Amino acid sequence: MAYNLKDVIVNTESRFTPGHRMCAGCGAPPVARMVLRAVNPEDHVVVANATGCMEVSTCIYPYTAWTDSYIHTAFENAAATCSGAEAAYKSMKRQGKLPKNKTTKFITFGGDGGTYDIGIQSLSGAMERGHDMTYVCYDNGAYMNTGIQRSSATPHFADTTTSPAGKVIPGKMQRRKDLTEIMASHHLPYVAQTLAMLNFSDLYEKARKAIYTEGPTFLNVLAPCPRGWGYPTEDLMTINKLAADTCYWPLYEVVDGKYKITYKPAKKLPVEEFLRPQKRFKHMFKPGNEWMIEEFQKEVDERWNQLLELEAMSNK
Amino acid sequence: MGIRERLSGNEAAATAMKQINPDVVAAFPITPSTEIPQYFSTFVANGTVDTEFVAVESEHSAMSACVGAEAAGARAMTATSANGLSFMWEMIYIASSLRLPIVMSLVNRAVSGPLNIHCDHSDAMGVRDSGWIMLFSETNQEAYDNLIMAHRIAENKDVLLPLMVCQDGFITSHSIENIELIEDDKVKEFVGTYKPEHYLLNDKEPISIGPMDVQAYLFEHKHEQAEAMRNTKKVILEVAKDFEKMTGRKYELFEKYKTEDADIVVVCMNSTAGTSKVVVDKLREQGIKAGLLKVRVFRPFPVDEIAEALGNAKAIAVLDKADSLNGAGGALFTDVTSAMYVNKKQVPTVSYIYGIGGRDTTEKEIDSVYADLQEIVKDGRVENPYRYLGLKEEK
């Protein structure tokens, strides 16, 4: 896949336009913009969006930030809604009711609440049915739109408004769900985990593969939230880089069952480098709470080693 | 001149769907409507229809997929019952607010709990304020005919609302009756091609559907929905006229069965109307002026027409196959009495909750209702307007 990312950005018009009301320093808009940049300029897109920050900030009547066709219906059903639109496309194309020479791609965006939790049934169903669509989860690790409540994507020990770090219970006491693995277990032709770093190349390349692989594909993209995570807005890209360099958020893809880690940090940093700049983990650095950081590190290491093994095994 | 057949209500609904040949059907199995997607997926598997069948993982996704498909520019249909409709509830409102003329076959069944798979109308009554057009069907023939007329009504530019055709679970859905089908080509011509004005798959006019609609706009948008529902009545009658030209079968907002000179009138919906007609005939033989008003169009509710039709009665009984559990009668009772009050018609009226959870309703019971009405006519007094019919008495 030879391309020049700079050319892509300079020469293609953004399909996700400025003027939306997402927060400064939010990780989600760059994800939407970059994923849509991966679509061939001549192709049309139907975007389905779950209720959440992205939806309430980008499509407020009578305005829209989306230059493609866009549909939002509810919180838990973006995948099912998209699957219906895709079924319509298939049917109408077959019957000659749509222009022959025009391609429409189907892309769904949902936050972690709408994907890991309330939307997992709808997502699982749509993926299993084999619709030709790409589901993009922008994972900011909590229900940010309603004011930072814990989700099953919230990391262990994080302080949220429904898993507050209190005197007795120090934050969220459960580990996060590994949705990317759940999606890999659906035996989809393409599943990947990524984030916006390395000049967006990892995100761009995976988005292109996902969108132009026939069948159901899934992207899990880390999307930091300055309000929920507690970092200065200008540090978005630093936080992303730390997530990858500590292996908290491994970048990898699963192509027809074969694992490939797409970024192996030259020097794997201790996870506290990722935790320290974020207010939601502040209590973990209090004297006496060292065990929390140790446990967190253990979880990250376990997952990273498991991925290395999966990569080795699946490529034998 | 039509095709004589013998079909169950579910077969009749599936046959109508086959002839309509929608672009997308998304459905999930639930008793007693399961047979509809079953039959339909056979049509798909055998290439009898052009439809993309989406075998979803839940009813919530069935309605979500219908919304996605219809918004994309397709004609989308589904079928469900009871808890299936309850599970769709959120999307039922979204379908109508997005003005998507989806058509659903609702095979009426009791909503849990406790679990019961038999007929009552609690499922339909749960969505009576959702902005869907609701047609009720006494027989398999009516379930079929209502579906054939559905798209012409729902897709009309002055309407653009989703529509559900109700029939009684098991009582009609699983009973085989004689039916007159319309020839395939005639149905095709009658239903016509769906030409949406704005749709997702029109790459020349990308649109955003389902925005965040704040205080400055939502009220007006809901009002537009209400206006569309008001427009629907006229369209239903126009479509019925064309349908009558094609088939000779006449449909109105409701059926007046010997109500013209009736002193005592029963109001009900779906299959109970059939039983009631037998009772009315017997009473008429005895010289008792009994009548029946069978509501076909429940949403929009024909307030003025119903008040007009019932205005000269001396006593009315409204039969609800669902309890509103509000201590004040069923939903149909409330609508009928409200229509009468607004139109200044003062007729003693009683509510009967009946047939809950598939409890049989016999001629004898309907006869007892007319007997009660005769008592009321005698002195014009109603002791207890909130009654139950067919309830086992405590011993």
Walkthrough of the structure:
The complex is a heterodimer of chains A (316) and B (395). Chain A contains twelve helices and eight strands. By secondary structure, chain A is of the alpha/beta class. Chain A has one domain: Rossmann fold, CATH 3.40.50. Chain A has an eight-stranded mixed sheet with strand order 2-1-3-4-6-5-7-8, sandwiched between helices. In chain A, α8 links the parallel β5 (190-195) and β6. In chain A, α2 (28-37) crosses α8 (201-212) and α4 (78-94) runs parallel beside α6. By secondary structure, chain B is α/β, with parallel strands linked by helices. Chain B folds into two domains: 3-247, Thiamin diphosphate (ThDP)-binding fold, Pyr/PP domains (Rossmann fold); 254-389, 3-Layer(aba) Sandwich (Rossmann fold), CATH 3.40.50.920. In chain B, the strands form three sheets. Chain B has a seven-stranded mixed sheet, with helices on both faces. A six-stranded mixed sheet of chain B has the order 10-12-11-14-15-16, with helices on both faces. In chain B, strands 1-8 form a two-stranded antiparallel sheet. In chain B, α3 runs parallel beside α4. Chain B is globular. The relative contact order of chain B is 0.12. Chains A and B meet through β1, β2, α4 and α6 of A and β3, α3, α4 and β9 of B.
